[in-house]
Amino acid sequence: MNLHALRLFHAIASTGSVTRASELLNISQPAISAQIKKLEKELALPLLKAHGRGIALTDGGAKLYALSARLFAVEQQIERFLQDYREGETGHIRMAATYLPAHFLIPTWIAKFKQRYDQVEMTINTTNSSDALKQLLGVEVDLAFYGGLAEEYPETIRSEELFRDELWFVVAPDHRYAGRQVSLAEMVREPFVMRETGSSTRERFLALCRTFNAPAPRIALQFNGLNETVQAVIAGYGASFVSSLVVREQVERGRLSRVFVEGPEPQNIFSVCMRKNEPLSPAAEAFIRLVRENPYGRRLDLGT
After folding, report:
1. Sign of the alpha-carbon dihedral angle for 141, 143, 149, 153
2. I want to staple 102 with a disulfide (CB 3.0 to 4.6 A). Which of 25, 97, 277, 299 is the partner?
3. pLDDT per residue over 61-105, tens digit each?
4. Membrane-spanning residues where (predicted)?
């Protein structure tokens, strides 16, 4: 079927006049009439009939007009979708993230992003670093966010550092080390509250002790979440070694205090990874731009 001729027929049926259709489409009346005759011949179906000084739709023409109206409405929907997609207004962004960015950065990034791009779907998988990389390589996700030690990536992966975050020793404000400077050897004599075995921050702590020949710390309490870990220290038990991103607000409010340990100044590296030589969707590009402009997100209040 000649869709151009069908579009001309749809214009005539919509306006009720070949003249008005000609003016609307900026095509001469004879040219439109010739195209309609060809369409009627192609379909073996009369579409228009004389009606007084004007024209009217035949029964077949009326039914074809109803179908053509649906067809061109869908066409407009497709055009709007393509325009929105190109401008990042629609689409689906799939992400994998390790614990720290998933819990302390990505929620704020998404909230800011959705204020502008409400129609974009977003999926976040919280996982460990190796599985995040596996999902990225397997094209299960578009972006992978990491927080912790610098990772080694295959040649097919591009990594972009977003920012670096300090790791702090923290205690309750009435602890004898609160606000003081002590040696690492002194610090590790305290009972520690940490996340479970396998946590990247816990592994950093153990590696720090080995590097500076300090005794292994006594981890007296362990939790699966950072909130529980921090709340235990706020309540007055032991010390913890944690990302400043997590506890900075608690320190500023006086609910926790830093301990300044001589020598080591460990940092977390926060980065985003993408597949090399593979363009991101416009929506994902827009999200990455927002992340670059607001890398720290909003610091979290862990509660009262």
Report:
1. positive
2. 97
3. 899 999 998 888 888 777 777 776 776 677 899 999 988 899 889
4. none
